[in-house]
Specification:
Elements lengths: L2 E3 L3 H12 L1 H14 L5 E5 L16 E7 L7 H5 L4 E6 L6 E8 L4 E5 L6 H5 L4 E7 L2 E7 L3 H11 L8 H4 L2 H8 L9 E4 L8 H5 L1
Parallel strand pairs: 3-7, 6-9
Antiparallel strand pairs: 1-8, 2-3, 4-5, 5-6, 7-8
Length: 207
């Protein structure tokens, strides 16, 4: 999986399209107004979500737009240019198993729930997925080249996570009970995104 930052015309085209599309600005403002400076939300976009004059290299190429807490602004470029990893992680109470695609910067890691990225599987076949990270007034665009390896790793992770996960098949009742009694240790360096908007005009849809 290769991830490049602002190195190809297609990446610049995505940045220009985002700058031209007023609904993107409204969406970002909505996130920060509703969540404050700790806003962490994502939305999947495709060509049909933008103005007609903008065209992607393929009809199913996906842009994942991600708003992040303002405290990540200094690490944004490192996050966007990092090599993404895919892994599973159990919830502290062992009742859930999540599959993540994660981007690790110098100080922070940003990870997204794969099960909530509904356009991700089809984008794998089109050759490119853009991840656009926004924190405060900064924007960084990362380009992930799809491959058979990416498809196999993501499918392999999801086989045992999400609705496919059966906690009592993997854990005893004693282990689950013990885990539920353990306090969850906070990790301020990891931003987990499971809050996904369905529409670019999310503000209008909720009024």
């Amino acid at each position: 999986m290769k991830n490049t930052l602002q190195s190809k015309p297609s990446v610049r085209a995505v940045q220009e399209a985002l700058a031209r599309e007023p609904r993107v600005y409204d969406f970002v403002q909505y996130c920060y107004e509703s969540k404050g400076e700790d806003a962490a939300m994502a939305i999947e976009l495709s060509a049909s979500d933008f103005s007609p004059e903008f065209h992607y290299p393929g009809p199913n190429v996906v842009v994942v737009l991600i708003t992040l807490p303002a405290r990540l602004v200094g690490d944004l470029d490192a996050i966007a240019s990092s090599e993404p990893s895919i892994y599973n992680e159990y919830s502290p109470d062992l009742l859930e198993n999540y599959s993540y695609i994660a981007f690790k910067g110098n100080e922070f890691e940003v990870r997204l729930d794969l099960w909530r990225l509904h356009r991700f599987p089809e984008a794998i076949h089109d050759g490119v997925i853009f991840f656009t990270f926004i924190a405060a007034d900064r924007v960084a665009v990362g380009q992930v080249e799809a491959s058979e390896d990416l498809e196999e790793v993501s499918q392999g992770a999801c086989i045992s996570s999400g609705p496919n996960y059966k906690p009592r098949r993997d854990w005893s009742e004693e282990a689950i009970t013990a885990a539920q009694n353990e306090p969850e240790a906070p990790n301020d360096t990891v931003v987990t995104i499971r809050n996904y908007a369905k529409y670019l005009g999310e503000r209008e849809r909720r009024q």
